[in-house]
């Protein structure tokens, strides 16, 4: 097989499997300097020499974002609380999860640094930026992803419960963006991909404060796109629907979705299938990671201030 034919085949396979970013990455494929064969298929390495900071990276969507970036060659700072926050009523990631995440990222022949910290702690967030700069010399991709969920009608929630979700889901994202902004401005480059939610696009009475934080994350993302656009930094928000992660697959959520009953996962799965237009219930976090990687790629250079639904067609019901 000629070198040229081999490269064309590698690019076609990457496109068809969506590994290059949900099928959007034609421009990125064309501009890629090389494709590298890896176990299980072929993979672009267009992020080599780049550095990502991902919060909430020990598992779930954050880990999938880190993995999708690392698969394309980015070094990653994995930031996670990696321990229980007492007030959160379901298990968060553990130190073991964070260690396993590091090993998973390093399997892509890139470097990973772990920072055990809480996004509510500005000093910890700055530590992640300092680690990225000292070790890798740049911060190219920022994924403020860490978040928790909470169910319950608004009038049932205590002030402490409200504050917890605001402090993590909104102020945590604010702090991540504050921590990276001086570097991105100085570099005159960078990509920020925030993790909102479909509940940030519509009302959600069972998740009222969570929903409010996700609307706010979208507003914050658009403001960031406006503020940092002149510095060649893009900022976009992702809105997944129902992703199979520890945030939803836990006793707390299953027992509060329908008051007075505890759902089996299969019943919850049926709900997800009814919601989506595509024949799909809960989907895997890799579907979000791939889109985040696309938004960090050359192919997405002119996309900023945008809100992208990853909704298996549910958003077909939204007004344009
Ligand atoms: N799962 C879904 O269906 C879904 C849908 C839409 C949006 N989201 C959003 O995606 C993001 C990731 O969710 P996920 O589904 O992967 O959940 P998850 O619970 O599996 O992962 C969240 C990660 O964040 C970490 N974390 C939580 N609080 C933290 C804090 N204060 N500081 C640092 N780390 C913290 C946890 O330890 C965990 O590793 C969240 O912002 C969530 O709101 C999830």
Briefly say what this structure is.
By secondary structure, the chain is an alpha/beta fold. Helices cover 43% and strands 14% of the residues.
- Name the poorly predicted regions: 1-41
Terminal CA distance reads 47 Å
The CATH superfamily is known as NAD(P)-binding Rossmann-like Domain
Q: Tell me the number of strands.
A: 9
CATH fold name: Rossmann fold
Q: Determine the mean pLDDT.
A: 89
Rg to the nearest angstrom? 19 Å
Which distinct ligands sit in these coordinates?
Answer: nicotinamide-adenine-dinucleotide
C-alpha geometry: globular
Q: What percentage of residues falls in helices of 4 or more residues?
A: 40-55%
Report the β-strand fraction as a percent range: 5-15%
Largest sheet: 7 strands, parallel
CATH arch. level architecture: 3-Layer(aba) Sandwich
The secondary structure category is alpha/beta
> Strand arrangement, largest sheet?
5-4-3-6-7-8-9
What's the domain count? 1
Discrete helix count: 10
The CATH class assignment is Alpha Beta
